[in-house]
Fold this protein.
Amino acid sequence: MRRLRVFGVATIVVLVVACSHERPLVPPTPTGATPLGGPSMEATPPPPPGWKLEPVIPKTQQQAQDTVIGYLKKTLAALGAGITLDASRYSGGGTVHPCKDVETGTPPMEFATNGDLTLPAGVDANTIVAKAGDIWKSWGWQVYERDGFYKPNRFGYAPDGYILQIIARYQPGYAPTLQAISPCFPADLPAERSPFPTILTG
């Protein structure tokens, strides 16, 4: 009987953990994530000096989109002349969807984008991935390369809760994808927003 009770408690704990999808209060560092300049680590490393996660929750979907566009354009400008972001393969580029699962009620939402970088002739795609990570680090963001994705890749976590990620394509020679995600926001925020630009430049 004692074994049955222990097994039952263990089962409940596993189920509770498996059903939890809430965002952590600090950027997650999954097993295999590699902070730039350091070895593969399983625990979250110290953040950059002065870094503190204080999510800025958008008050409208338009505000979330505008903030994402601002970060993307700033990244493109820093990457260099002639580099653009093309969202034509991604049904408009910007989408709103639940950011976590809930058992009851309406889940909070997030605004996310995806696009393909267009690089000038002769520009090495892997170099651009590394450069993007260096750019985000220079802004004081936490930046990792993660296992489970095509490499090279960089995931950048801003103190305001926004995330940028640049990931190599599965075929060598193809330009990487550049994605952005907003912090979670209430589902009842005003949904009106302008069409997401198909082409972004710095």
DSSP finds three helices and nine strands in the chain.
